[in-house]
Every structure is written in structure tokens, then in C-alpha cells.
Amino acid sequence: MKVLVINSGSSSLKYELFEMRQRTSLARGLLERIGEPGSRLLHHGRDSAGQADELVREQPVPDHRAALRLVQTVLHQTGAIADSAELLGIGHRVVHGGEAFQQPTLINQRVLEAIRRQIPLAPLHNPANLLGIEVALAEYAHVPQVAVFDTAFHHTLPPHAWHYALPAELYQRHGIRRYGFHGTSHQYVSGRAAEILGRPLIELNLIVLHLGNGASATAVRGGRSVDTSMGFTPLEGLMMGTRCGDLDPAVIFFLTRDAGLSIDQIDALLNKDSGLRGVCGANDMREVLRRAAAGDPRAQLAVEMYCYRVKKYVGAYMAALGHVDAIVFTAGIGENSAEVRAGSCRDLDGLGISLDPARNASSSGGPRAIHSDGSRVQVLVVPTDEELEIAAQTVACIQAASDAPGAPGAPDAPRQPGARGEAGEVRGER
Ligand code: ADP
């Protein structure tokens, strides 16, 4: 039961192949610089003796179709997929599902068009995701394909959490609201946290802190997202590698009127040149921590600001949830930086959160508890695996559709306006 997961970017194609009976990864890779000079594929798989093996291909890759063909060839040559009939399905990561997609959805022509209609909400990401879907549909016409949306996990946000305090017509006409992102990661990590805690997810209140290049915090009650820090776009919320996170919107008026910047310049400034990079000149947390340890005051300030912002969201989500069972750190920074975890939980004993320094400093790569014995709130580190979550949701979606051929989500099922998970129709107030 093999599932291929595809994450298609504008000039890159990331993939991972799973055997879903054992939930194991068989092969993964990244093809970069599609349509540019210097295209390069780095593939990790297994050799004929089952040992981990790495392979590099450097050759011209003019477009996404050529990219997928190269990936197919490598998967075939390495024996990972002998025949496409081995594939149960293909799962595609799609960044923005808007309000139209509230769950993983089997892809057909109508779904493709509905994803296309979400492009104004994610003009940088959805077109690239669509390209990946289109070439995969052409190359694997007989394999069921599923779109898994970064936004879908957050469809359970209550209206008071997703509305902005703006004139109602901005939501009604333009869909301006909080959508939230990193949903597959928050969902996966919540489920794993429940397994580690040995309690049903439905009974747990969690705060999940996904701290990678992008960063977001989510309040999860009983397995459902009830608030999240990213908003209409991934720019809102925590301080990130290159994004500013929360900011007084009046800064934008000032930059336009007084500093003479164009809207495009401000867009680039807030998304690409702010966050850690804006404050200290480096966006990679490892580099920032190295500089801070060497005494660079700007890097020290950047780390302080980063942790302080995480801590404020922890406090806010404790208030939102009322009671919190566990705080869960994940993604590159959350999984690897004891210093950022310690800074984010510093002086929170009054809220029942205290870390055990030795447990926090442990460099074990696996899931682990890092709170002290007396901490009322448990604090966990749980490695995320968005690709595995996409593969699992792909299997569930395909099986649900085949178990109930007339059910919503089945490729040719009749669709009722406003039905949960329906593509192309907007629910609620819009
Ligand atoms: P993405 O959001 O691109 O998936 P990741 O989840 O891989 O990103 O996170 C990347 C971030 O994790 C970078 O800022 C990187 O510096 C940071 N990171 C990775 N390893 C460490 C480490 N050992 N200590 C501190 N930060 C780390």
C-alpha cells in the first residue's frame, strides 16, 4: 500500500514515498532549481541490500513535468516503485483551501477549478501546488490523487477567533479572515502528543508550537484547532526567520506615506527581510544562536524577542483554553533548540509550567517530555512529519470514498451546496 506525497513549489519538487501498512518511509527527495540553470535532485532511498542510500542527479529540468518524470525514473531505477499500479494514491500538499476545503479532498476537474479559485488568497503558493497536481494527473492518470490543505485543520476555529475587527463586508466580499496554516503539522503533532501522554486526544487541551522557518502556535481543544497565530496569510503571529509576525498595521501607512515605499516593497520587507533576519541579519536560528553566544547584541536581542513572542502566545492560549494539559514544541527550532524552549517557558512557574533543564538539554531526536516533575503542565518535544500526515490523510480519504461511493469527497459524487468538505462553495456568512 504505497502512497507518494508531493509538495510542489514554484521551482522545487519535494516528494516522499511511504509504505502505509507499516507507516514507513521508503524514499524521499528534493528537486531544486526547476526551470533554472543548475537543476539538482537529491534522492534518499535504499539500495538492493536495504541500506540507506543517497543519489544526486544534475541535469536540465525545464519544467514541472520534466521534474516529475525525473523523480519517476529515479523511483523506478532504485526499485522504490516497480509499477505505478503499486500506488494506492498520491497526496498533494496544497497551502490554501480557503473556506471551500475543510478536509482532504479527492481531486477531480471540479476540485482543480476550486483550488484555482483560491489563488488570490495564496498567490505565491497555490499556483505552484496546482502545477504539481496537473503534471501528476497527467503522468499517473489512473492513480487516485488527494489534495491535503494546510488551512483545513483550522476550519474548527470559532467565529470570535477567526473574524478580524474589520467592517463585515471585507469578509463577505473578499474573504478577509483568519485561516491559519501549518495545519497538517499541528494535527499530526497533536495526535502524537496524545499517544505519548497515553490519553485520548478528545480529552486533551494542547498548545502546539511549530517553530521552523515559518512559525505558528495553535490552541487545540479535544483534537480541534480553536485558535492559531497565523491569519489571513502566514505573516501574522510569531516572529519568524524572515517574517515580522504581529505588527501595528499603521506601520504600513507610515512606510507608504513617509518612507515612500511601494506596496510591493513593503510586502517583500515584511515577508522576506524582517523577523530574525531583520533584527540581526541572519534568518537561520543556528547562526543567530551562534552569534548570540559570541556576544553579538543584535543576535541576543533577536533571540530574546523570538522567545518572548512565543511566551506571549503560550499565555494567550492558556487563557483561551482555560486549562492546558501539555505544551508541545515541534519543527526545526522547536525540536532542536533547548535554548529557545527554555526562553519561551522562562518564569512561567506561576502558570504551572516549569522545565527540567537536563531533560530539556537532552539531544535525543525522538519524542520526549522535558518538564520538571512538579510542573502542572506537561511540556513535550514531538518531531513533526507533515509528509506522513499527508500520506495518512490520503489513505483515509481514498478509503472513505471507496467505502461510500456516493459520499462527499468521492470523485463523481453529487455535491450539495454548503456540504462539509465541498469544493468551490463558500460556507457560513459569505
Ligand atoms: P521549514 O519551516 O523550512 O520546514 P524547519 O522546520 O526545518 O523549516 O526549521 C528550520 C529552522 O530550524 C532554521 O531556523 C534552523 O536554523 C532551525 N534549526 C535546525 N536545527 C537547529 C538546531 N540544532 N538549533 C537551533 N535551530 C535549529
List the helices and strands and how they pair.
Elements: E1 2-8, E2 12-19, E3 24-32, E4 40-46, E5 52-58, H1 64-77, E6 87-94, E7 105-106, H2 109-117, H3 126-139, E8 145-149, H4 159-162, H5 168-174, H6 183-197, E9 205-211, E10 215-221, E11 224-228, H7 250-257, H8 263-272, H9 275-280, H10 285-293, H11 297-321, E12 326-330, H12 331-336, H13 338-344, H14 357-361, E13 368-369, E14 378-381, H15 386-403
Parallel strand pairs: 1-6, 6-8, 9-12, 12-14
Antiparallel strand pairs: 1-2, 2-3, 3-4, 4-5, 7-8, 9-10, 10-11, 13-14
Bound molecules: adenosine-5'-diphosphate.
Adenosine-5'-diphosphate (ADP) is lined by residues 212-214, 241, 284-286, 289, 331-333, 336-337.
What distinguishing features does this structure have?
disordered C terminus, Nucleotidyltransferase, domain 5, eight-stranded mixed beta sheet, 14 strands, binds adenosine-5'-diphosphate, 15 helices, alpha/beta, 2 domains, 430 residues, 19% strand, six-stranded mixed beta sheet
What would your notes on this structure say?
The chain is of the alpha/beta class and 430 residues long. The protein folds into two domains: 2-179 and 388-424, Nucleotidyltransferase, domain 5 (2-Layer Sandwich), CATH 3.30.420; 199-384, Nucleotidyltransferase, domain 5 (2-Layer Sandwich), CATH 3.30.420. Helix content is 37%, strand content 19%. The strands form two sheets. The protein has an eight-stranded mixed beta sheet, with helices on both faces. The two termini are 40 Å apart. Mean pLDDT is 92; it is low at 408-430. The chain binds adenosine-5'-diphosphate (ADP). Adenosine-5'-diphosphate is lined by residues 212-214, 241, 284-286, 289, 331-333, 336-337. Adenosine-5'-diphosphate (ADP) binds next to α10 and α12.
